[in-house]
Amino acid sequence: MNFETGTVSGRAENQMDWNVNNAFKTYKDIEPKSVMDMAIIQNVDPIDIGLGTSEKANPVVPTKRKKTMTSVYLKYFETAPDGKSRRCKFCGQSYSIATATGNLGRHLSNRHPGYDKSGDSVTTSAPQPITVIKKAQPQGKANVDYDHLNWLLIKWLILASLPPSTLEEKWLANSFKFLNPSIQLWSGDKYKAVFREVFRSMQEDVRTSLEQVSSKVSIILDFWTSYEQIFYMSVTCQWIDEHWCFQKILLDICHIPYPCGGSEIYHSLIKVLKMYNLENRVLSCTHDNSQNAIHACHTLKEDLDGQKVAPFCYIPCAARALNLIIDDGLRTTKPVISKIREFVLELNSSGEMAEDFIQITTAYQEGSWKLPLETSARWSGNYQMLDLVCKAGKSMDSVIRKYDETLGGRMVLSSAEKNAVNIVHGYLEPFYKTTNNICTNKLLTIGLVLFFMDHISEMITICRESRHSPDWLKNAAEEMAKKARSYNNQVSNIFTYMTAILDPRIKSELIPESLGTGNYLDEARNHFIRNYSSSHFSSMTSGYGSQEIEDGGSVSFAEEIARKKRRASLNNATDELTQYLSETPAPIPTDVLEWWKVNSTRYPRLSTMARDFLAVQPTSVAPEELFCSKGDEIDKQRFCMPHDSTQAIFCIRSWTQGGIKLKYKSTEIDYERLMELAVAATADNGNAGSDKKQKLKNENC
């Protein structure tokens, strides 16, 4: 994500070698070229075996083609029963029966290069199925089992977040058949069955890995509705490992049954926690601020408190609260922003207009702008529209006047509109800087978010009390203040206080005033002594007991002195917390986890508590997914995925991205090896084709 002026972009670069666009597209949106460009089938000679096969075909001597246009082109088309049209056998494209054969030839050359290579056995002018001749492979030639191709396609579906139904399209199967008629793609049902089995196998690995986690864990909940009107919940687990590295893993994606209320959410959540044996180890839950989620979390807290398992708290999503606050600030200027966005869309789509805009901004010294500009309706895109008017208003007006016939006068902003944009832009600039910091922070802690939200509340108060603020902006600020107070009320408790002070950048000095009052510090000390100091003492005393047994029950004089000192240290356990809070907070850019890793020897008990509490997340969604266009791509993927693939596809993708190996039952799928085999087979086929051409050339000589 890049929040710099003129370059706001939510697109995350794809790091996969497959060059797959992760934005969801239905199979109707995918051009055949996307299949032909896949690495596993590049540069394949359609005459030889496409990916290699264990089958051997007898050599067939190709017959000569007739020299008529009809025999060259029409054999690749089939005539419709009504005799009024012809349909391409490769892609299904239809043409009128009166279409010139030259146009049919151009279709074949452009859409299906290589159709006319030597080796075709089609000799008659009447339409008939295409036969691609296979050469018998020399012994020792690299082969790829066709199941390998299907596994590579599974990898593609996972990376691109596409449903298995994508592979049921005839044009895709025909494209592979054109390369090699022996290729057999699995049926749609088999792909789904394989995905289900892979999901079960990998889920077991996830469960095993979580059993090794020694600290408390926190969970976050996110919700969405698909095009089938099915309500889903994702449950993600987070913790800090013994090396002070932040860990995060998706546990499950659950279908929440009708009526999708708090009770249904609670039962689905508790089922997931029990599946992974986490119900006694969960410290907190961050939700999406919806009333149903709050009700479910409250029920879970009552359940855990009743079992006296461990302290538990639920946290509202700061990013969603901030997004609603900002939306109130934008409400008055939304119509103007829509007008500006219309201009930017035209600007992005016209190379000539974009070039003029760059030249004019340079002439007017109105900054350097990287096109295309972001047009998302999310916060980063809306701020981009305001920024454009404030920083390149003259250039925008000049381009609109120059292209008046294309753009029309509707895009020209009035003086009142420009004035409103300038006021809102100035008011919301601190909000933009805040979201920029939130999105780019390496580890977003509760303490840092409370620090930022306190700053936001101060900006709102200044606007409300300023004599220079217009009434319409003060009214907007009043609504913003209500939402800010609602969030602050939800997070003002002992749990968030303890989490905040354990951030070495915040401690008690930068705690918001709403948290700094009361006896939270005394309660934090009591919690520390009760839940962390005593556990260490228990482990130490158990060690002494074993030593006494070895010594026959006798204890040396030196050991008695050592025990007294240890007990004194334990009785003064709160000195760790007191000493920690008495020191100056670390600078804001400090890496929190690295700080604790270095200082854990100074604060052995307090660092254990910090490992638990710093894993608590202040947002239920990655901020960049909420504030920028990256969220649009994720929303499309979620919305368009059918129910029978949602859980498996999204979970498997998340697990593989997190480093868990893709497995089918007990077998790990080695994709690096599959790619090596595919490349080797492709190279052998290419060499075979070259040898064939050289042999023909020598014979002609």
Automatic annotation (TrEMBL):
Homodimer. GO terms for molecular function: DNA binding; protein dimerization activity; zinc ion binding. Residues 71-113 form the BED-type domain. It is found in: Nucleus. Residues 576-655 form the HAT C-terminal dimerisation domain. This is BED-type domain-containing protein. Residues 439-532 form the hAT-like transposase RNase-H fold domain. InterPro entries: hAT-like_transposase_RNase-H, HATC_C_dom, RNaseH-like_sf, Znf_BED, ZnF_BED_domain_contain. It holds the Pfam family Dimer_Tnp_hAT. The lineage of its organism: Eukaryota, Viridiplantae, Streptophyta, Embryophyta, Tracheophyta. Keywords: DNA-binding, Metal-binding, Nucleus, Transcription, Transcription regulation, Zinc, Zinc-finger.
